[in-house]
Write a structure and sequence with these properties.
- This protein is α/β, with parallel strands linked by helices.
- The chain has one domain: 3-Layer(aba) Sandwich (Rossmann fold).
- It has ten helices and ten strands.
- The strands form two sheets. A six-stranded mixed beta sheet has the order 6-7-8-3-9-10, with helices on both faces. A four-stranded antiparallel beta sheet has the order 2-1-4-5, covered by helices on one side.
- Helix 4 (104-114) packs parallel to helix 6.
- The chain is globular and about 50 Å long.
- Keywords: Amino-acid transport, ATP-binding, Cell membrane, Membrane, Nucleotide-binding, Transport.
């Protein structure tokens, strides 16, 4: 494979992905590719399929049809080792999922040591540097219940990026936060974008999507209705359903 071919392989790509729960089609033939260093933001009403799409990409949910490729590898092949796939992806959900009995630095380094085999001292040094950079250095020895919601969510993001994953999936990471804490978490995502992190995220924060996304994707009822630059989607949506959704959100 040439250098040019390698550079053009999407970090993650969904081809014709379908997912059904019972009689309900949650994803109905999704085609979506995310390029290296691109930030793609999924928008749409609750129940549109945003979270389910992210969960299929981390193999938490198995697709019923279609394929998902991570760095060119078909990760929906039944022979694939799901744990090895997940080790290549960082994931942060709306609920922080921190272990209450572990300190911040132990929460952050657990997967790095257990899953990736990074030596304890190296993992802790790397974690402390990241925590320092993000204004959490003094909290390394604290337990999660001593932190604000915004701080806990930032710790969860540090845990996800410590091993420098190929792809970062962020699922409504501000929805469980008080409004005054949303800004500090979004600042961190801005910082990650500046570092060239490849991000696929679902959010209800339209102003943030407009500011940080390279591409905005609108989902409705499990269908990818429209995608484009923030300027195009928010300024001149082509599909009536997109325009209707944005008008409803803004009001």
């Amino acid at each position: 494979m040439t250098v040019l071919e390698t550079a053009t392989i999407p970090v993650v790509e969904a081809r014709g992905v379908r997912k059904r729960f019972g009689d309900h089609d949650v994803l109905r033939g999704i085609d979506l590719a995310v390029a290296p260093h691109e930030v793609v933001v999924l928008i749409g009403a609750s129940g549109s399929g945003k979270s389910t799409l992210l969960r299929t990409m981390n193999l938490i949910e198995q697709v019923d049809d279609g394929q998902i490729f991570l760095g060119g590898d078909d990760i929906t092949d039944p022979r694939v080792d799901a744990d090895k796939v997940r080790a290549r992806i960082g994931v942060v959900f709306q609920h922080f999922n921190l272990f209450p009995h572990l300190s911040v630095i132990d929460n952050v380094t657990l997967a790095a040591r257990r899953v990736h085999g990074i030596p304890k001292d190296e993992a802790r040094a790397r974690a402390q540097k990241l925590l320092d950079t993000l204004g959490l250095g003094a909290k390394a020895a604290e337990y999660p219940d001593r932190l604000s919601g915004g701080q806990q969510q930032r710790v969860a993001i540090v845990r996800a990026i410590l091993t420098e994953p190929e792809l970062l999936l962020l699922d409504e990471i501000t929805s469980a936060l008080d409004p005054q804490l949303v800004g500090e978490v979004l600042d961190l995502v801005r910082d990650l974008k500046g570092r060239g992190t490849t991000i696929l995220m679902a959010t209800h924060e339209m102003s943030f999507a407009r500011e940080v996304a390279d591409r905005v994707v609108f989902l409705k009822d499990g269908v990818l209705v429209e995608q484009g630059t923030p300027e195009q989607i928010f300024g001149a949506p082509q599909h009536p359903a997109t325009a209707e959704f944005l008008a409803r959100v803004h009001h």
